[in-house]
Amino acid sequence: MGAGKTTIGTRLARQLGWRFVDLDERIEEAAGITIPEFFERHGELAFRQLEADQLRAALGRAVEFRESTILALGGGTYAQAGAPEFLRNAGIPVIWLDTPLELLLSRCMTMTGRPLFRDEASFRALYTQRLASYEVADFRVDSSGDAAAVVAEILRRGIAGIPAAEFPVSREKPDP
């Protein structure tokens, strides 16, 4: 929540010429309602099942059509039982966009549509609960800076699967 997954994922995909998929958008399209509405009507357990189904479908499409894809997972997706193993077994590298807790909190305070963000105390508890899962990601990138710098760092390190020396990094203007 608030790490910049969609913003950074979109920019990274554009830079690489790859397809970008936001798992939350897929979930909303499949459900026909927003994620907060889904949580309210069906609860978190049903949401997590739909999320897992959409994750498998997105990866299946990428494999079937041989599409190089950047997939932005929801903040809790990787923290679900079996998700890290599923992605690892599928050969999917996972990048943890690590952002200091205080910055995440300040970003989320101004966002709407976050069903698990209730207040500062619950946010801190949720972050603590998910942290151990995030730490087993294949790569960690500090995402506290502007999105262009984060994308440049991912490309510089060759994390997206393209050796850094083979890909020029664009010099986009940072977000305001």
In short:
The protein is mainly alpha-helical and about 180 residues long. The protein is built from 7 helices and 4 strands, in the order αβααβαβααβα.
In words, what does this structure look like?
Helix content is 52%, strand content 9%. By secondary structure, it is mainly α. The protein has a single domain, classed as Rossmann fold, CATH 3.40.50. Helix 1 packs across helix 7 and helix 2 crosses helix 3. The protein is globular. The two termini are 20 Å apart.
Task: Write the topology of this structure.
Layout: H1 5-16, E1 19-22, H2 23-31, H3 35-64, E2 69-72, H4 83-89, E3 95-98, H5 101-109, H6 120-134, E4 139-142, H7 147-156
Parallel strand pairs: 1-2, 3-4
Helix pairs in contact: 1-7, 2-3
* Strand percentage: 5-15%
CATH homologous superfamily caption: P-loop containing nucleotide triphosphate hydrolases
Let me know the number of strands: 4
Unreliable sequence segments: 165-176
- The average pLDDT value, as a whole number, equals 84
Number of helices: 7
Number of domains: 1
CATH class: Alpha Beta
Key features?
two-stranded parallel sheet; Rossmann fold; 7 helices; single chain; disordered C terminus; 176 residues; mainly alpha; globular
